[in-house]
């Protein structure tokens, strides 16, 4: 059973636009919700993360919106830039710390 | 060297070969992880080590054998692999397993494995 469902699979956005990627999870025993960014030939790198006690977290152009009751969280990239073109993964972590579940990834392309 | 390093970066092996993947973290972390990344599939957590003890083994076939000789090094020993095992194998580390403010996992660049 897939613990995290991520959409869309791919996304094309104009420079300066807003990129939105969504994730939904099944289990309520998760306590940490990170987003990772991966460039070709590199490992994923943490972009931003949120805990379930807050509904929104913003770092620069990146914002996570978290809806605990709906078991959904999303990544918003404001003023998207060509350098943001990468694959983005959401993830959830079990509250024992031993389990991480990742989404299938979203390939973002920002057109100049 | 900084961060998390992995060697080799690319590996081609036959189904009867035995090979090992190496991961080294230079961050002073206590937890290390092996992941498998296949195209169009979610990253799959394979093994978790905390303070050199294995704390998670996610139903991984026995043809994959991890080893953590100390908190800075993690190996993945491979033998009699199948073509469907071809994937990017990623190593990661974190300060601790859970709790506290420092939950971030740092990933290495991965080893691209091809099984013929």
Task: Describe, in plain words, how this protein is organized in 3D.
The complex is a heterodimer of chains A (112) and B (116). Chain A has strands at residues 4-7, 10-14, 19-25, 30-38, 45-50, 56-59, 62-67, 72-77, 86-94, 100-102, 106-111. Chain A is mainly β. The model of chain A has no long low-confidence stretch (mean pLDDT 93). By secondary structure, chain B is an all-beta fold. Helix content of chain B is 0%, strand content 55%. Chain B is built from no helices and eleven strands. Chain B has strands at 4-7, 10-13, 18-25, 31-37, 44-50, 53-57, 64-70, 73-79, 87-94, 106-107, 111-115. In chain B, the strands form two sheets. In chain B, strands 2, 4, 5, 6, 9, 10 and 11 form a seven-stranded mixed sheet that branches. A four-stranded antiparallel sheet of chain B has the order 1-3-8-7, with no helix packed on it.
Short description:
The complex is a heterodimer of chains A (112) and B (116). Chain A is mainly β.
Oligomer: heterodimer
Give the % helix of chain B: under 10%
DSSP helix count of chain B? 0
**Cα distance spanning the termini of chain A:** 39 Å
Helix/strand order of chain A: EEEEEEEEEEE
- Principal-axes shape call of chain A: globular
- Strand fraction of chain A equals over 45%
Structural class of chain A: mainly beta
Sheet having the most strands of chain A: 6 strands, mixed
Class computed from helices, strands and strand pairing of chain B: mainly beta
Give the low-confidence spans of chain A.
none
State the major sheet of chain B. 7 strands, mixed
Uncertain residue ranges of chain B: none
Most extensive interface, residues per chain? A-B, 27 and 25 residues
Mean pLDDT of chain B: 90
